[in-house]
Design a protein that fits this description.
The longest helix is centred in the first third of the chain and has 16 residues, at 2-17. The two termini are 31 Å apart. The strands form two sheets. Strands 3-2-1-4-5-10-9 form a seven-stranded mixed β-sheet, sandwiched between helices. Strands 6-7-8 form a three-stranded antiparallel β-sheet. It has a single domain, classed as Rossmann fold (3-Layer(aba) Sandwich). The protein is an alpha/beta fold. 34% of the residues are buried. It contains nine helices and ten strands. A hairpin with a 5-residue loop joins strand 6 (163-166) and strand 7 (172-177).
């Protein structure tokens, strides 16, 4: 399956890039991140405050730190042990975070139900063929009336410079290169609002989409039907 091959190559890439991730993203401290992304965090806050939150693809834990300050409890998942080691090494506002090594396309080891599912900078890396798989996996962990919060990047000059081609499934492919000469093809899609609504509409009673042009971010929130 072409989508699965894409996922396997991205998994290898992210295992390799993990030690460089925070530098690449410009992350210095959680306080600096909170200040920079304050408008986005303000949009997110009502959907995570005092809730049991399932964070999908938590990476190095930068958004996990944001969630920890606000949520009742956070179960932060990622399939990369390298990312989870970095995430676990960080400081969290409260002792309310549990980390699990889980594949976002199954989440089979995640027990219980949650009030909110949260994923930052993840949707863009989902091959189009696997969007329904991910959506089902996420929704199975949520109670009726729960919230979903998704946020990701809008196109920008820096990201555009990495563009390589569109593959046969319509995925936008970025080429990521390392100093040792290794190269990886990474899915980096920029979905339109209509695509997000089509992908998740069957699960939602309410849905809102926002863009912040200055921070080049989109945020989608929904209430689970």
């Amino acid at each position: 399956m072409r989508g699965r091959r894409r996922i396997e190559e991205m998994n290898a890439y992210y295992d390799k890039v993990a030690p460089l991730h925070d530098k690449f993203m410009g992350y210095t401290t959680n306080e600096a991140m909170e200040e920079l992304l304050a408008p986005i965090i303000e949009w997110v806050e009502p959907f995570v405050s005092d809730r049991d939150v399932l964070e999908i693809a938590c990476g190095t834990g930068n958004w996990t730190q944001v969630l920890s300050r606000r949520a009742k409890a956070v179960v932060a998942t990622d399939r990369s042990p390298a990312y989870l080691r970095i995430a676990r090494s960080k400081t969290y506002a409260r002792d309310n975070v549990t980390f699990l090594n889980e594949d976002a396309y199954s989440l089979e080891g995640v027990k219980g139900e949650f009030d909110t599912a949260f994923a930052a900078d993840w949707w863009s890396h989902i091959p189009r063929s696997h969007v329904p798989v991910f959506a089902r996996s996420m929704m199975e962990k949520l109670r009726r009336g729960s919230a979903v919060v998704l946020l990701d990047m809008l196109p920008s000059p820096g990201l555009d410079a990495m563009f390589s081609h569109y593959d046969e499934d319509g995925n936008c492919i970025h080429m990521r290169r390392f100093d040792d000469g290794t190269e990886f093809e990474v899915v980096k899609n920029f979905p339109a609002e209509s695509e997000l609504r089509e992908a998740l509409g069957e699960y939602a009673d309410e849905m809102e989409y926002r863009e912040h042009d200055g921070l080049r971010r989109w945020v989608l929130t929904l209430k689970v039907r």
